[in-house]
């Protein structure tokens, strides 16, 4: 009899502590391999901790709710044979091992496919088969590589070639079965155990870093107000009818840009950049409006420079040009930086409310929700109006709620009385 | 006056593992810095694989010519040859030079920045080379291995390691090789052919103890023919520099004095983990090597170890394959190191090659196998090469005839490793090899015949 000690595995990107949420076993329980012992929680996900061994639980390492260091002892199980208790006799090593605990994850990851092995009936029909954990599936290097790319575990694929060799066709059959199972009503829904790791690199990593940085540093607060855009939409339709052919079509965005430009004259604290390391706020006269744009490789924010000096059509043309440049990857570095306030719009997908993340070091971002016709009460009468919400976020470290609310009310006023957009 | 460089990938060590990682990373557009303390190409190109093969070639040519000058069944008559070993070494150096220059050019072509100097690890993302500090996101450790030294035989003067043996100023009259493994025998045989009287001291009861007795038998016979003296089950006690004699203890416990001019210590290699502050990373170890998983990842995130540093098998081609994989992993591709087999070749005379499982290993794994061999004595091409000894052996499962191992011993069999490796990786069965037409007259026919024989119908036996 020996003791097998399971340590808290390193679950995610550089997470040093993990919360123990729930035990599925108690001291004295007999457990079998792959039985779930506990649920642990990272800031991202709940993760099952399965048992890598058969045996009897002799000690639990913590209480539900307890935050435990990666590498600390989670549970001790009495097992046949020697166990792995040597590790636990060197307590000094535990602390040092904390960042080095990655190999422990293997135990968890490897036991997941084992859990998938005893799937009912699937083993004896179709292109699926379960092999012993230590049995090496027979496949050429090209097939192995292809399977890795597809996230297929070769262990589960039936080989139709000589001596059970897995062929490219077998991979296709394996995938096809998954699809046909999904589409026929009589088939049992197929349990999926494939996983794909997408390395967070390049553009995605940039975005991830910026978003994380922004949410960690800034004290976000969001403010939502509904705007009656009936008048400004009428004006837009009129201008498009009259000048569309010669000056180009207008979307709502240039009107919003114009509203920001005018409103910001009275709210310089919102057209600003906050350097929190130097503890300096820079208020800018120029209004450089970042326009969040979805490109194939991810979110990009091209910048309309000096929007305050541009006409409606000028702004429209610039927004359109920059969006195309960003989408096709042709936007220059300069065109993608230097904004003082950001406008984010998902158009028809705008939803009713969003909570935009600030584009640091800016202190405000204005989100545009979709336009819908709604019954509104005006002077005691129910009338159909075109309504649109603006969901905006501000950095509460330097923008007070009152200022933010007044700013958005000013924008609202300008959009609801569109003539005032152009009255100096 | 410290400058700091930033890079995505930093590789420590410019041997086959390191430089291949760098080239592949360069192809994938990863900004890469490679640090090398000595010469690009590492042990392999400078003081290992390549120079030893060059010296073996010189020895073989010299030996053949000498053979013809005495008695030639081929009807060639020449006068006794002489050897200018200085010129031989110069020729060898020329090859090494061409190869290392080639590596340097390839690295440049793929925009890899090479920094010459000794790396010192600061942490998992920081390395210092002299005054330069390099910050990286991914660190690949590829520092290779060094010869194991014996405490009673410190290298110096008449006691040499393989490094000195590969750049001789003269051929010693007498040479004792300590270690009957592949390095000791490759060099021992070469020195014998160059004219030295060679003895081999080996602690175990046979030469090349890593291979089975049937396979090493032809090498044993060749050593007898070459008049290389074997001291098996003998252990080294020390060296008497006054009398130029190596003291060894025989199996009875008696001390023997072997008079010699040089002693070549070739008792193995060990991962190069010392002297570059590797300890600071506190990585999990696997014996004296760094522990890695099937993606060559160490116990620290984004720190990889490849090649000899990660332990056995210490083979350049394994390091290269690992390096290529690591570069692709870093670029975001899905990869894992999952070869069916890695060929091991021994350039003795005759040569040895082992790929996949040997009969003993198959047995130990509990597999019911057919083992079949075909002798080169029945192969026409071998006869025309004056090669009479050796054979090709195949190991296949009895139930489905899947081939799980190939071994061969004989003149020129190193080149068969390609066919063996391919057969194993593609999952060939005996019928596949038996059904492939092998060109006549080649040594490869013995490969097909071994498979045919395993199926019970060899044609030429």
Molecular structure report:
The complex is a heterodimer of chains A (424) and B (461). With 424 residues, chain A is an alpha+beta fold. Chain A has three domains: 2-114, Beta Barrel (OB fold (Dihydrolipoamide Acetyltransferase, E2P)); 117-183, Dihydrolipoamide Transferase; 203-422, Chloramphenicol acetyltransferase-like domain (Chloramphenicol Acetyltransferase), CATH 3.30.559. Chain A has nine helices and 18 strands. In chain A, a hairpin with a 2-residue loop joins β17 (364-378) and β18. In chain A, α7 packs across α8 (312-327). Chain A starts with a strand and ends in an 8-residue tail after the last helix. Residues 87-125 of chain A have low confidence and may be disordered. With 461 residues, chain B is of the alpha/beta class. Chain B has three domains: 3-56 and 85-146 and 270-330, FAD/NAD(P)-binding domain (3-Layer(bba) Sandwich), CATH 3.50.50.60; 159-267, FAD/NAD(P)-binding domain (3-Layer(bba) Sandwich), CATH 3.50.50; 344-454, Enolase-like, domain 1 (2-Layer Sandwich). Helices cover 31% and strands 26% of the residues of chain B. Chain B is built from 13 helices and 24 strands. In chain B, α1 (16-27) packs parallel to α8 and α3 packs parallel to α6. Chain B is globular and about 70 Å long. The mean pLDDT of chain B is 95. The chains are: A alpha+beta (424), B alpha/beta (461). The A-B interface holds A 14, 96, 99-103, 106, 136, 138-141, 144-145, 148-149, 151, 161-165, 197-199, 201 and B 282-284, 291, 293, 297, 299-301, 332, 334-336, 338-340, 397, 400-402, 425-427, 429, 431-432.
Task: Briefly characterize the structure.
The complex is a heterodimer of chains A (424) and B (461). Chain A is of the alpha+beta class.
Strand order of the largest sheet of chain A: 9-18-17-16-12-15
Provide the structure class of chain A: alpha+beta
- Beta-strand segment tally of chain B: 24
Q: What is the tally of helical segments of chain A?
A: 9
Give the N-terminus to C-terminus distance of chain A in angstroms: 88 Å
Tell me the domain tally of chain A: 3
Query: What is the CATH homology-level superfamily of the largest domain in chain B?
Result: FAD/NAD(P)-binding domain
Which range best describes the helical content of chain B: under 10%, 10-25%, 25-40%, 40-55%, 55-70% or over 70%? 25-40%
In terms of per-residue confidence, which ranges of chain B show pLDDT below 50 for 5 or more consecutive residues? none
The structural domain count of chain B equals: 3
Major sheet details of chain B: 7 strands, mixed
Number of strands of chain A: 18
Give the CATH superfamily of the largest domain in chain A.
Chloramphenicol acetyltransferase-like domain
Mean pLDDT over the residues of chain B = 95
CATH topology category name of the largest domain in chain A? Chloramphenicol Acetyltransferase
**What is the overall pLDDT average of chain A?**
81
CATH class type of the largest domain in chain A? Alpha Beta
């Amino acid at each position: 009899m020996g003791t097998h000690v399971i340590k808290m595995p390193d679950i995610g990107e550089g997470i040093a502590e993990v919360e123990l949420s729930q035990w599925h076993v108690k001291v004295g329980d007999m457990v079998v391999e792959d039985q779930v012992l506990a649920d642990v929680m990272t800031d991202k996900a709940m993760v099952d901790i399965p048992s890598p061994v058969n045996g009897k639980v002799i000690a639990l390492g913590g209480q539900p709710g307890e935050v435990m260091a990666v590498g600390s002892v989670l549970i001790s199980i009495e097992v046949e044979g020697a166990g792995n208790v040597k590790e636990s006799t060197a307590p000094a090593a535990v602390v040092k091992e904390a960042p080095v605990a990655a190999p422990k994850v293997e135990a968890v990851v490897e036991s997941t496919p084992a859990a998938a092995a005893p799937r009912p009936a699937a083993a004896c029909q179709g292109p699926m088969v379960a092999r012993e954990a230590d049995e090496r599936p027979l496949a050429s290097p090209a097939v192995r590589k292809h399977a890795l790319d597809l996230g297929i575990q070769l262990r589960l694929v039936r080989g139709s070639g000589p001596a059970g060799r897995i062929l490219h066709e077998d991979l296709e059959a394996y995938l096809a079965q998954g699809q046909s199972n999904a589409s026929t009503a009589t088939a049992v829904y197929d349990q999926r155990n494939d996983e794909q790791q997408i390395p967070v690199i390049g553009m995605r990593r940039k975005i991830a870093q910026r978003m994380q940085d922004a949410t960690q540093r800034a004290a976000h607060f969001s403010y939502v107000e509904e705007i009656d855009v009936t008048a400004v939409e009428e004006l837009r339709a009129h201008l498009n009818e009259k000048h569309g052919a010669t000056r180009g079509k207008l979307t709502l965005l240039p009107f919003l840009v114009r509203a920001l430009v005018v409103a910001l004259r009275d709210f310089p604290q919102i057209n600003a950049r906050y350097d929190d390391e130097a503890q300096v706020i820079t208020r800018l006269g120029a209004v450089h409006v970042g326009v969040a744009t979805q490109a194939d490789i991810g979110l990009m924010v091209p910048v309309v420079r000096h929007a305050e000096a541009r006409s409606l059509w000028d702004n429209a043309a610039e927004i359109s040009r920059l969006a195309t440049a960003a989408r096709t990857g042709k936007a220059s570095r300069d065109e993608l930086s230097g904004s003082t306030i950001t406008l984010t719009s998902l158009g028809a997908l705008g939803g009713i409310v969003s909570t935009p993340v600030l584009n640091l070091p800016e202190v405000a971002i204005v989100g545009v929700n979709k336009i819908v016709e709604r019954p509104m009460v005006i002077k005691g009468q129910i009338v159909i109006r075109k309504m649109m919400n603006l969901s905006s976020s501000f950095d509460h470290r330097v923008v007070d709620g009152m200022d933010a609310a007044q700013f958005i009310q000013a924008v609202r006023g300008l959009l609801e009385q569109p003539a005032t957009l152009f009255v100096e | 006056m410290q400058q700091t460089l930033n890079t995505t990938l930093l590789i420590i060590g410019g041997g086959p593992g390191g430089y291949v990682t760098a080239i592949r990373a360069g192809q994938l557009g990863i900004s890469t810095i490679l640090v090398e303390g000595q010469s690009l190409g590492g042990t392999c190109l400078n003081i290992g694989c390549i120079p030893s093969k060059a010296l073996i070639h010189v020895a073989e040519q010299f030996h053949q010519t000498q053979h013809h000058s005495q008695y030639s069944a081929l009807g060639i008559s020449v006068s006794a040859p002489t050897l200018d070993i200085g010129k031989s070494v110069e020729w060898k150096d020329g090859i090494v030079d061409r190869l290392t220059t080639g590596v340097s050019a390839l690295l440049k072509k793929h925009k890899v920045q090479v920094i010459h100097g000794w790396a010192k690890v600061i942490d998992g993302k920081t390395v210092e080379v002299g005054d330069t500090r390099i910050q990286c996101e991914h660190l690949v450790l590829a520092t290779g291995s060094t010869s194991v030294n014996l405490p009673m035989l410190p290298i110096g003067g008449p006691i040499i390691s393989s490094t000195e043996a590969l750049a001789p100023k003269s051929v010693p009259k007498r040479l004792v090789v300590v270690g009957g493994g592949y390095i000791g025998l490759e060099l021992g045989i070469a020195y014998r052919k160059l004219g030295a009287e060679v003895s081999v001291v080996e602690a175990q009861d046979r030469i090349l103890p890593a291979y089975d007795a049937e396979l090493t038998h032809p090498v044993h016979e060749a050593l007898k023919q070459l008049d290389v003296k074997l001291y098996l089950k003998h252990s080294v006690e020390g060296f008497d520099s006054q009398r130029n004699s190596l003291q060894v203890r025989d199996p009875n416990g008696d001390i023997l004095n072997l008079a010699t001019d040089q002693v070549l210590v070739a008792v193995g290699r060990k991962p190069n983990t010392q002297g570059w502050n590797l300890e600071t990373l506190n990585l999990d170890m696997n014996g004296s090597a760094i522990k890695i998983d099937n993606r060559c990842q160490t116990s620290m995130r984004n720190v990889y170890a490849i090649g000899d540093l990660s332990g056995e098998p210490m083979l350049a081609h394994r390091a290269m394959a690992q390096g290529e994989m690591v570069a692709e992993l870093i670029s975001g591709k899905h990869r894992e190191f999952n070869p069916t087999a890695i060929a091991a070749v021994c350039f003795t005379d005759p040569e040895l090659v082992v790929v996949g499982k040997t009969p003993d290993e198959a047995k130990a794994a509990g597999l019911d196998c057919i083992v079949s061999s075909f002798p080169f004595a029945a192969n026409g091409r071998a006869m025309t090469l004056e090669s009479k000894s050796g054979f090709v052996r195949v190991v296949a499962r009895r139930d489905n005839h899947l081939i799980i191992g190939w071994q061969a011993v004989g003149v020129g069999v190193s080149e068969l490793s390609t066919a063996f490796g391919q057969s194993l990786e593609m999952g060939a069965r005996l019928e596949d090899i038996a059904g492939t037409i092998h060109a006549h007259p080649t040594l490869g026919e013995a490969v097909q015949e071994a498979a045919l024989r395993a199926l019970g119908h060899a044609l030429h036996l």
